[in-house]
Amino acid sequence: MRILHTGDWHLGKNLEGHERIKEQEQFIDELVQIADTYQVQMILVAGDIYDHSNPPAKAERLFYEALRRLNNKGERIIVVIAGNHDHPERLAATAPLLYEEGIFLFGTIYDTVPKGTYSNFAIQHSGKGYMEIEVKGERVVLLTLPYPSEKRLNEIFTEELQEEEQQKAYSQRIGELLRQLAVHYQEDTINILVSHLYLGGGEESESERPIQLGGSLAVDIEEFPRGAQYIALGHLHRPQRIQGSQVTAYYAGSPIQYSKSEITYAKSVYIADVIPNKKPKVEQVFLKNYKPIEIWNCKSMGEALARCEEPCEYPHWTYLEIETEEVLHQEDIKTLRQLKKDIIEIIPRLKNIEEEQLVYEDPMDKTMEALFREFYTSQRQVPPTQELVELFLDIMENGGGEDETHSIEDSRAK
Predict the structure, then answer these.
(1) Residue 405: which domain range?
(2) Number of domains forming the structure of the chain
(3) Which of 16, 195, 222, 372 is the most buried (most CB within 10 A)?
(4) CATH no. for residue 7?
């Protein structure tokens, strides 16, 4: 069976307030083309379909349109699991409407699909976290482990444990779950695992938010079942094979550059040809860079203005770093943004500034607004706009309820 592995679409994600939906539409177009060209029989989407637990309507519309096109009127099986950015119940809410087309959405490990014979396939066996599906004479046992946080598993492994013990307890519990599911693997079936988690040894990028409150709880690769012929993973945005193990495990990575830390490597999907009781043949298929992120380093404001005035050869997002001896004026910043609409951030690099004597003040003596203004200015070398200050104060005042997917925001991605 030929399987396409993708994930971390993050539909609806913005880049510092700039919409990326057009790039995501281009990705879906290319993904459909790849699936058709390679005559793929099954597609695995390894979590983080959306960037938020409550995605915008445009993102949901794109997701369901992608499922329709990729499924090709029931000719291609699609399996989708929830990641840490997805709302598990919301993602799986439409699952019963899609079974007959061969589209399966899993929000948690406890989700199941009904057994039955359909037009192009049959679900021969199923239960929590697994299903055996027959497609055109080929039998596949698929283990599904959507993002397994303590909250979603409804278990607590880490209470009153030191960090090292927390990691060990969590990893062992995930291993136990996988071993229980792996009993359904057979020698004459194609044995697959799809999950969204942090695997020890994987390379992260800035745009991945911490996967767990208080830090990233990782799973040791040795906890993965030896019987799995191909392990399709999501969460890390750099496409990569997990090294140093007997199992074949890959992170597909994200389809587009979601932060400037991702500009040094290409984006891709994986195509795996799998037959029972054999090692799979895996091919990395690279994606186009629909609108790359660039970092411009300018020695002066004059150079920055000149570069922004030049006609663009291709669309791209720009982080503009400018060496300067003084704080940038709002008029200069406004001019740069008028000249080039796709500037993400203007970053002054102050030079020849004498170190000032530090004066320590008790932060308890300052208002929240004053603290925010000082912090923002120290990080960006420009003061925040009044609109941004008001937005910050409004968020602080109205807060809202806790959301598992956004309890901690990775400040490195800003």
Answers:
(1) 361-414
(2) 3
(3) 195
(4) 3.60.21.10
